[in-house]
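Whiteboard transcription, Tuesday session. T.W. wrote the structure tokens on the left side:
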């Protein structure tokens, strides 16, 4: 009996030590929930900072509130800045007291002209797109770098009606489909220019809930899994490109009048569409991509990479992008996957000093309530993780945030399989053509780099690299690898 008890005690101690040694995202990130005023619905449509450090929060029910962030989550002194908006889901700060807001019916310039902290000037910049009354038609914006804005105009959903009285032209053909474009420019990115003109920029989107311009001038947006979206795609948005959701085509000036895009063959649509730079596995990493945001210098080891919030999960996705044969493609993994994080990730902004990531949350009834504002800061310890996953001619190179311990990695530690997605009219789609891949060799190419050769790489597939069960990669300081799964979207091989 005594021997059995000693054995059980030892086993419990061993299991406990293993569990304690396993890294967690909370070891590296402080996640706080910020108190919002008790008398407002905390459904966050947009978040931005001005140059003086004041935080602006747009609430979907129509108000915009401001506060100078306090050191503690309950030390924000909120003030009503502006009100009367219809589902404001996009916002940019032009200057302290001066913002531009995208709401369902228009792009609005809002100013505090007398300096009392309350807006007193509201001016419509453009209302170029139609309004059907459908709840799903939200609009988001990002600056174009020249005084104008790119506007992501979402499609309508079959779960809601179109109203009897609409604004703008109506298309019976565009009204067809699960997500539809019955009025102008739904499913498009528009370009509002500094001179006030508006031009159609790109088409073929379903629900690109968030859009950004990176420091190099590239435009990025995600989309939501659904019809014509087998999983969660992240797109590099280029002028005049088509991104695969056909309903928007009815508003293309070059589109033949009376032609129904939903009657095109899948082959025709695939030949027209621009592929996603990254296909993010739906269940594993991101169910509903919202706003992408670029990590600034000084905020941890992943500066320059893009984060994508999940509107239907308690996680944030990190992208590792590169150009292959002139086009963006790359990998994804978790930035944060934590029960401390609210679901409903919708908008994000870094504080001007680069110390904090603020995230705004709302689920709009699609899941359990998860509304509010959060703040994420770095703890002292840097995570040991894959910093970059790159394609090579023979396979992949993994660059880590720290040097690896000698002899910590073996070929058997890595399991690789691949699959493809086929976007079509059905809602979402399974992983197709799944197969195990042969990892034929592994070698260290630098203290923090490892090269893994894969037999028979094939374009058009997602390659998922998993750390085998029981395997542990360690840094020289003894830290264990934080993430254990990484997915690379291989659109093109290296020429």
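and on the right, the sequence the group agreed on:
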């Amino acid at each position: 009996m005594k021997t059995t008890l000693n054995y059980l005690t030892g086993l419990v101690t061993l299991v406990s030590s293993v569990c304690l040694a396993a890294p967690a995202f909370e070891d590296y990130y402080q996640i706080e929930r910020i108190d919002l005023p008790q008398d407002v619905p905390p459904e966050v449509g947009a978040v931005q900072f001005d140059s003086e450090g004041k935080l602006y929060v747009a609430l979907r029910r129509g108000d915009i509130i401001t506060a100078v962030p306090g050191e503690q989550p309950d030390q924000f002194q909120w003030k009503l800045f502006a009100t009367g908006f219809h589902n404001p889901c996009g916002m940019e700060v032009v200057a302290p007291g001066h913002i531009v807001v995208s709401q369902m019916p228009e792009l609005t310039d809002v100013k505090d002209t007398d300096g009392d902290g309350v807006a007193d000037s509201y001016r419509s910049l453009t209302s170029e797109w139609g309004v059907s009354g459908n709840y799903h038609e939200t609009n988001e914006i990002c600056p174009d770098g020249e005084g104008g804005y790119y506007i992501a105009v979402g499609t309508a959903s079959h779960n809601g009606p179109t109203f009897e009285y609409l604004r703008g032209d109506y298309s019976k053909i565009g009204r067809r489909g699960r997500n539809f474009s019955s009025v102008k420019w739904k499913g498009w990115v528009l370009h509002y220019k500094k001179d006030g003109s508006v031009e159609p920029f790109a088409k073929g989107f379903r629900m690109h809930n968030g859009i950004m311009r990176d420091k190099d001038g590239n435009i990025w947006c995600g989309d939501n899994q659904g019809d014509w979206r087998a999983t969660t795609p992240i797109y590099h948005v280029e002028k005049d490109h088509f991104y695969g959701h056909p309903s928007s085509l009815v508003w293309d000036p070059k589109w033949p009048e009376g032609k129904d895009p939903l009657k095109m063959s899948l082959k025709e649509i695939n030949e027209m569409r621009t592929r996603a730079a990254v296909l993010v596995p739906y269940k594993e990493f991101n169910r509903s991509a919202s706003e992408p945001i670029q990590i600034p210098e000084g905020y941890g080891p992943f500066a320059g990479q893009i984060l994508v919030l999940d509107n239907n999960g308690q996680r944030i996705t990190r992208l590792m992008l590169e150009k292959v044969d002139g086009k963006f493609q790359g990998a994804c993994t978790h930035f944060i996957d934590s029960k401390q994080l609210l679901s409903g990730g919708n908008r994000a902004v870094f504080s001007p000093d680069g110390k904090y990531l603020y995230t705004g949350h709302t689920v709009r009834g699609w899941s359990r309530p998860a509304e509010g504002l959060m703040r994420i800061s770095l703890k002292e310890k840097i995570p040991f993780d894959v910093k970059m996953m790159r394609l090579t001619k023979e396979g992949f190179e993994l660059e880590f945030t720290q040097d690896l311990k000698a002899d910590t990695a073996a070929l058997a530690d890595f399991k690789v399989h691949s699959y493809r997605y086929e976007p079509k009219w059905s809602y979402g789609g399974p992983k197709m053509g799944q197969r195990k891949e042969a990892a034929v060799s592994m070698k260290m190419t630098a203290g923090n780099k490892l090269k893994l050769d894969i037999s028979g790489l094939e374009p058009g597939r997602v390659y998922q690299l998993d750390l085998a069960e029981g395997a542990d990669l360690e840094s020289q300081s003894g830290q264990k690898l934080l993430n254990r799964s990484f997915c690379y979207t291989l659109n093109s091989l290296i020429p």
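Someone added at the bottom: The radius of gyration is 24 Å.
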